């Protein structure tokens, strides 16, 4: 049987509906239906597809590893690289240093604006005849409620506030080497995460992580458990933003 057929059969044997599996894994029902039909396009990439397969298999009570190996055989596994080569090529993300504001230029511009404003006021005052000046038309009382009503936005028009940061949690099933940086290239962690230990980091825009043992850790991104991102001994480079992962 294919990966999707195996998961569907195991789910039915366990007496679970797609909705129940969706609630327990926090994967959309439409994504689960696609996986059971061997359509992994909606997973958002092979990395997320492996995580979804692993999560669904655990819920329906079967070993996910044979399915992961079959997925890698059919759709291609990430090419393993040596840890030494990966570590040598590690470079911090270059971010342009913010320039300090030019306060002298800003004050000069502000002074020019003040002088121009004063000249305009003087010219306007001299050109106006107090006896012939027309009074400014005042809005009628009847028009005021309509203006107030249009100026007040409806509560439903307020847009939803998007997530402003990204959170990454790593739990070590086996001791694994990690290197974690934020979008500015600042190192958040570098070293060995001991078996059974876990760590969590938060960044504003993006988190970059280098993992020395893809099968020895479990990832949780923005509250979504993704499981192990790779196999034992596999070196992985991953990055996540506030909108990741797909399928939540």
In short, what is this structure?
This protein has 248 residues and is an alpha+beta fold.
Strand order of the largest sheet: 4-1-6-7
Shape: elongated
Overall strand count: 8
Category by helix and strand content: alpha+beta
Please give the share of residues in helix.
Answer: 25-40%
Give the rounded overall mean pLDDT: 79
Helix-strand pattern, N to C?
A: HHHHHHHHEEEEEEEE
What is the CA-CA span between the terminal residues?
A: 28 Å
Rg measurement, Å: 30 Å
Assembly status: single chain
Instruction: Give the low-confidence spans.
Output: 79-93, 127-133, 142-151, 153-160
Strand content: 15-25%
Biased composition (Low complexity): 149-158
Region (Disordered): 130-158
InterPro entries: Bact_Cytoskel_RodZ (IPR050400), Lambda_DNA-bd_dom_sf (IPR010982), RodZ-like_C (IPR025194)
Domain Cytoskeleton protein RodZ-like C-terminal: 170-238
List the defining traits of the structure above:
434 Repressor (Amino-terminal Domain); alpha+beta; elongated; 4-stranded antiparallel sheet
Q: Can you describe this structure?
A:
It is a single chain. The protein is 38% helix and 19% strand. It has helices at 3-13, 18-25, 29-36, 46-60, 65-75, 83-88, 103-127, 143-151; strands spanning 166-172, 176-182, 187-193, 198-203, 207-211, 217-221, 224-227, 236-240. The longest helix has 25 residues, at 103-127. With 248 residues, the protein is α+β, with helices and mostly antiparallel strands. 24% of the residues are buried. It is elongated, with a radius of gyration of 30 Å. Among the domains are: 3-75, lambda repressor-like DNA-binding domains (434 Repressor (Amino-terminal Domain)), CATH 1.10.260.40; 83-93 and 161-240, no CATH class. Helix 1 (3-13) runs parallel beside helix 4 and helix 4 (46-60) runs antiparallel to helix 5 (65-75). Residues 149-158 have a biased composition (Low complexity). InterPro entries: Bact_Cytoskel_RodZ, Lambda_DNA-bd_dom_sf, RodZ-like_C. It comes from Thermomonospora curvata (strain ATCC 19995 / DSM 43183 / JCM 3096 / KCTC 9072 / NBRC 15933 / NCIMB 10081 / Henssen B9).
């Amino acid at each position: 049987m294919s990966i999707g057929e195996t998961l569907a059969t195991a789910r039915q044997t366990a007496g679970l509906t797609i909705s129940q599996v969706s609630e327990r894994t926090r994967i959309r029902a439409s994504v689960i239906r696609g996986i059971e039909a061997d359509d992994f396009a909606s997973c958002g990439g092979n990395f997320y597809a492996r995580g979804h397969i692993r999560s669904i298999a655990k819920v329906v009570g079967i070993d996910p590893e044979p399915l992961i190996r079959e997925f890698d055989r059919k759709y291609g596994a990430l090419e393993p690289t040596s840890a030494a080569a990966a570590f040598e090529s590690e470079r911090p993300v270059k971010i342009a240093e913010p320039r300090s504001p030019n306060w002298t230029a800003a004050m000069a511009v502000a002074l020019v604006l003040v002088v121009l404003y004063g000249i305009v006021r003087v010219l306007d005052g001299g050109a106006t005849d107090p006896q012939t000046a027309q009074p400014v038309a005042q809005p009628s009382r009847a028009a005021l409620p309509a203006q107030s009503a249009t100026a007040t936005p409806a509560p439903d028009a307020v847009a939803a506030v998007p997530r402003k940061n990204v959170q990454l949690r790593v739990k070590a099933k086996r001791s694994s080497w990690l290197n974690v940086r934020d979008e500015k290239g600042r190192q958040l962690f570098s070293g060995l995460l001991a078996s059974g230990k876990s760590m969590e980091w938060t960044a504003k825009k993006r988190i970059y992580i280098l993992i020395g043992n893809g099968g020895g850790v479990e990832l949780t991104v923005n509250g979504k458990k993704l499981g192990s991102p790779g196999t034992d001994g596999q070196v992985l480079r991953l990055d996540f933003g506030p909108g990741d992962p797909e399928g939540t």
